[in-house]
Amino acid sequence: MVAMKTITWVKLILIAWITFSVTAVSIAAEWGTVMYAHQNTLIREKRSVKSRIKGRLAENQAVKADFFKNGWYAVFSLTEKKRKESKALGYVYKMRLSADRPKSVETIPENKKQEDVSAESNQDLDVDVKNISFNIANNDNEKESIFIEFNRFYTPAISSIEGNEPRIVLDLENVSSFKKEWAMINVGGKYIKRIRSSMDPKTRKARIVLDLEPFKDYFIQPHFGKKENIYSLEVSADVNK
Known about the structure:
By secondary structure, the chain is mostly beta strands. The chain has one helix and 17 strands. The protein has two domains: 22-122, SH3 type barrels, CATH 2.30.30.40; 127-237, Sandwich (Immunoglobulin-like). The chain has a five-stranded antiparallel sheet, with no helix packed on it. The chain has a five-stranded mixed sheet with strand order 12-8-9-17-16, with no helix packed on it. The protein has a five-stranded antiparallel sheet with strand order 10-11-15-14-13, with no helix packed on it. The chain starts with 32 loop residues before the first strand and ends with a strand. Mean pLDDT is 76; it is low at 1-29 and 104-124.
């Protein structure tokens, strides 16, 4: 009897698009490197996007970063004196931190909750989705991409749904505009079958779903072009599977 594969899953490998220069910043104390958070930065309990969210960092908030492993930093309060990983606030993916000191860095009180700071700094920031487009693979290109143009720097929250109908889900908040024509886009690619989008005007939340071909494992690589304010998501199959 030949066994049939009935369940597939999507493997996400989020590859950072920012290369950090550790020589551009001084050491805060005897250990660790001072780094600055991007907007909407989450602190995770473990080195995984699937782990529990422990807190948030405000845009440009400074932290000590150390114990780098598998693309993740353990982050600490600037006042932390002991170099022990158990003292960390949690873990932040490297693409959410920068070693370059911003021109204007807001001083954040140590006794202020991270969740409160994040809410105050982002509650009035709207994001305008200006365009959604895609590029499908051909014989010479084994990668497919979706492009989302925003009015400012913005990175959606990304997750995956496994099973016989694998999907990549992008969630957006504080959305100010979203076109109805993006509700269903039939891509017909090797990997991306269609793009489905919707927005709840009451909550101002939008969701973009990439329906994928089943029975494949995928590599997912996000990128943000700051000059054009274009977020792209590149999808390719794991040829080793």
